Amino acid sequence: xxxxxxxxxxxxxxxxxxxxxxxxxxxxxxxxxxxxxxxxxxxxxxxxxxxxxxxxxxxxxxxxxxxxxxxxxxxxxxxxxxxxxxxxxxxxxxxxxxxxxxxxxxxxxxxxxxxxxxxxxxxxxxxxxxxxxxxxxxxxxxxxxxxxxxxxxxxxxxxxxxxxxxxxxxxxxxxxxxxxxxxxxxxxxxxxxxxxxxxxxxxxxxxxxxxxxxxxxxxxxxxxxxxxxxxxxxxxxxxxxxxxxxxxxxxxxxxxxxxxxxxxxxxxxxxxxxxxxxxxxxxxxxxxxxxxxxxxxxxxxxxxxxxxxxxxxxxxxxxxxxxxxxxxxxxxxxxxxxxxxxxxxxxxxxxxxxxxxxxxxxxxxxxxxxxxxxxxxxxxxx
Length: 382
Description:
ATP binds at residue 36. Belongs to the protein kinase superfamily. By secondary structure, this protein is α+β, with helices and mostly antiparallel strands. The chain contains 11 helices and 11 strands. A hairpin with a 4-residue loop joins β1 (2-11) and β2 (16-22). The radius of gyration is 20 Å and the shape is globular.
């Protein structure tokens, strides 16, 4: 496929996101797309995201993926490109800000139902998202002008219950800390456990924030993150339920904020909760809430950055631990103290954003077989 690369709308340390449009009428792609591009040598997370999105392609609450390809720049550098649906309505964090810090309860019901439907599909396909948050819930415009709520960014997702890699060895990466601190479940902080219940806890945080306009764990942007995460993982506390919610909404959040993951309600159970059953069918598209790009990076401080332990790649939403926390200490064979684990979660780094108005035509360097060759080489290197 030939495609035209437009302005850069997001840039991190391992990949960039561009607006793009097919040069010809390619039957599987829309007139406007978002393209995540990364050097082939740093593309393992993008390839992983492509594989997961392919498994979830039949779910209307998951951002569409239109394929991938390889391109070669004039300087000879090879890039891996992932074609994604462009969300003209932005994300929930942007909508919350433009709505004056609170979203109406009727709309929150609808958004929450759609997110739940997406989470249920993710879990039924055997995956855990691991980073459900406002910035990863995108708003797309359907053909009839209504808003479609879609879950995006599967870079930190994992197989449910997976403990070993393809070689049959304990996978250290699976036991690494991942996610966004303010949305992390207690078991994720205390035991590095990331299974389907952790997505439900994060959903509760998202819903609470939509209602109140504040993080579920009440804190200022400059608060001590270490102390907060200690509360999440090692103290018998749960987030405060917003007073603004109706009784059904408060009960819904109580089912999400159960510290014991084995007693936390599942996505299937929550879809039958009265707060969700009575939600509206659809929402009109709010044009005033549409930013210039659905892939703008969050405006929050580094306290909200996602965490992932990887020596291969990095991005604005990914933090790295010192080498002292790599290896066996991330495999479950030894347990750092609570204070050490909190210190791991508290580190952050700055975002690097840039924009351009240039447009260039890009031609796919190779066929599907080239992509398969890339994936084979990547798996061998791992």
